[in-house]
Amino acid sequence: MEILLTRQEKRYIGKWIQWKRKENKLSQEEFLEAYPLCARKTLSRLENGKENVREELLEDLLSVFGMRIPEVSDFQSVDLVLMVHPLNL
Questions:
Q1: How far is it, in rounded angstroms, from Cα 82 to Cα 89?
Q2: What pTM, to 2 d.p., does this model score?
Q3: What is the overall mean pLDDT for the chain?
Q4: What is the DSSP string of 37-51?
Q5: Is 77 helix (H, G, I), strand (E, B) or coil?
Q6: How far are the Cα atoms of 11, 18, 60, 74, 78 from residue 43, in angstroms, in the given order?
Q7: 63, 31 Cβ separation under 8 angstroms
Q8: pLDDT tens across 5-36, in order?
């Protein structure tokens, strides 16, 4: 079953991926060297909410951290999530 995500949910997932990557002390280059799932430019744009990527790529990136889209997109507000998990951008 395909999961349809809003742009806001995709933005949240991108920020969550960035948070987890930084929590693991990995640069974008180091992360993609270990998990070559997309170009660095795509990851950067995804993490900054500027890339509307296909959901299969989101699933692949989330699976690196043992997560799936339904588990991560439970929050309704990106702002609420960022208050709970500040990204120190």
A1: 11
A2: 0.75
A3: 79
A4: -S-HHHHHHHHTT--
A5: coil
A6: 12, 9, 12, 22, 18
A7: no
A8: 777 878 888 888 999 999 999 999 999 999 99
